[in-house]
Design goal:
By secondary structure, the protein is of the alpha/beta class. 34% of the residues lie in helices and 10% in strands. Helix 6 packs antiparallel against helix 7. The termini are far apart.
């Protein structure tokens, strides 16, 4: 070969060697590479192999062309010998394939849910009955949730009732399916907030509270289920709306999606906005129906009624109290649920233009949602607050946000509120009347109410959940004869 040809080949050969070396290094590193953070627990290699490994056959829960089997109001599967679509259409039931999200719910013992409300299966009920009959032919209405402040964290109750009746029209965002492999999500029917409210203290001679005992039993139950093992718990939904609920189990169950009121009492590795869902409190104030009380019909400029002396981040309430209590057209007073507190707060909000929502012991409270259904423009002073459905709902269209550091500056808050024109306020007031339906808990649930909005929020989490599960199964060898 001519010298010039050899000269041209030398750089080409060197480049080839460089590329080959690079490929070899990446291949060698790839054997040790792991996803940076899938939000799933990977404490040790041994635990990872048993807790996170997802067989390829189990990781996929897409139904393909097969018929889906759903459950009726009494928890009975539909006829598996008939086509799912034709069966649903012919019976007037809801087809799971039309739902925003398909949900499998564990038939857990009643002690975890309606048993906490004093419900027990009737004497004539067959073995294995764990649910009240919520069908239209039921002998009695569903057990009622207790009143007072218990109600504000009753989210699990409403979601469970909705799933129990989800096969019947009107069809909602979620439909309960009989086979967990057909499901997008797995719902855990534990009334954690009620368990905390009623049973968080040990009753002598018991040394462990009933609430803690239930949480420990819940962890054992869930981690023994095939559904949990398939996904490492990543597709499970657990409602722990009271800030202190699930206190003893949350660290063990944190791969699941938590439905919470805020993240104030959660470690960032246990709960976060990327993984979990914020749900509204059930409001205590009465919804202002047919509200025609506009700007000039609400004499109070700024309203707050509630606990003033709070710990942690709520100390700002005391500062604002002394700054605002003597201001003209401002009502700032102590109040509680006792002595008809909810009724008085409702009347006060209905006659006020702006309502203060100030951080308390935790970043959130039901006061915000009382203001929304009263169509009193919320003034939110809580730097760490997270809000329900904020990916689809722009709160700035009907709320005022104020940094805590600005709110305590002398005169700042009153200048800000007084500077909002009648036209601006009216625009926010009209928007409040449009969005208040999104914060109503009811049974049966209605289109775009709080129950349906929570299901829709969870449905939007499904692609991310699937990504986590699929990524965690990359190195699973259980279906490939690996050891």
């Amino acid at each position: 070969m001519a010298p010039r040809g050899r000269t041209l080949l030398l750089p080409l050969a060197a480049a080839t060697v460089l590329v080959a070396s690079t490929i070899f290094l990446f291949a060698a590193a790839g054997a040790r590479w792991r996803p940076a953070d899938t939000s799933l627990p990977v404490p040790t290699d041994a635990e990872a192999s048993s807790f996170l490994a997802v067989p390829a056959s189990a990781a996929s829960n897409t139904s393909g062309g097969k018929d889906l089997s759903f459950l009726d109001e009494n928890g009975r599967p539909d006829d598996p010998t008939t086509s799912g679509a034709s069966s649903a259409a012919g019976s007037g039931r809801c087809d799971p394939r039309d739902a925003a999200v398909r949900v499998f719910m564990y038939d857990m013992p009643s002690e975890f849910h309606f048993g906490l409300l004093g419900w027990a299966p009737p004497p004539h009920a067959g073995e294995g009955v764990v649910w009240p009959d919520v069908s239209t032919n039921g002998a009695a209405p569903p057990p009622r949730y207790p009143g007072g402040l218990n109600q504000q964290h009753s989210v699990a109750y409403w979601l469970t009732l909705d799933l129990l009746s989800s096969s019947a029209a009107p069809c909602g965002a979620a439909v309960r399916v009989a086979d967990s492999r057909d499901a997008d999500l797995v719902f855990v029917p534990f009334f954690a907030s009620l368990s905390y409210n009623r049973h968080s203290r040990a009753v002598p001679p018991e040394r462990v509270s009933r609430d803690r005992a239930l949480q420990e039993k819940l962890v054992r139950y869930l981690t023994a289920q095939q559904e949990w093992k398939r996904s490492g718990g990543a597709d499970h939904v657990i409602v722990a709306h009271h800030p202190n609920s699930l206190l003893h189990a949350r660290a063990a169950l944190f791969p699941a999606v938590f439905v919470l009121s805020d993240f104030g009492r959660y470690h960032p590795r246990v709960a976060s906005l990327e993984k979990d869902v914020i749900a509204p409190y059930k409001h205590m104030a009465k919804t202002f129906v047919n509200d025609s009380a506009g700007f000039d019909d609400r004499p109070t400029l700024l309203y707050f009624r509630g606990a003033i002396y709070r710990k942690e981040g709520g100390s700002i309430r005391q500062e604002l109290y002394y700054m605002l209590k003597d201001e003209k057209d401002v009502y700032f007073s102590f109040g509680s649920v006792q002595d008809h507190g909810a009724s008085k707060a409702s009347q006060g909000m209905h006659s006020s233009k702006f309502c203060l929502n100030i951080a308390g012991d935790t970043p959130s409270s039901n006061r915000l949602f009382d203001a929304i259904v009263s169509h009193c423009v919320p003034v939110i002073i809580s730097d760490d607050i997270e809000l329900p459905y904020e990916d689809v709902l722009d709160y700035s269209k009907f709320s005022i946000f104020v940094h805590s550091s600005d709110a305590v500056k002398k005169g700042y808050l009153m200048r800000l509120i007084s500077g909002i024109s009648k036209q601006q306020w009216t625009r926010m007031w009209k928007r409040l009347k449009e969005v208040d339906k999104h914060f109503e808990y009811q049974y049966p649930s209605q289109k775009d109410d709080a129950v349906q909005m929570i299901w829709q929020t969870l449905a939007r989490r499904v692609p991310t959940i699937r990504l986590k599960v699929h990524r965690s199964s990359r190195f699973s060898r259980s279906d490939r004869g690996g050891k």
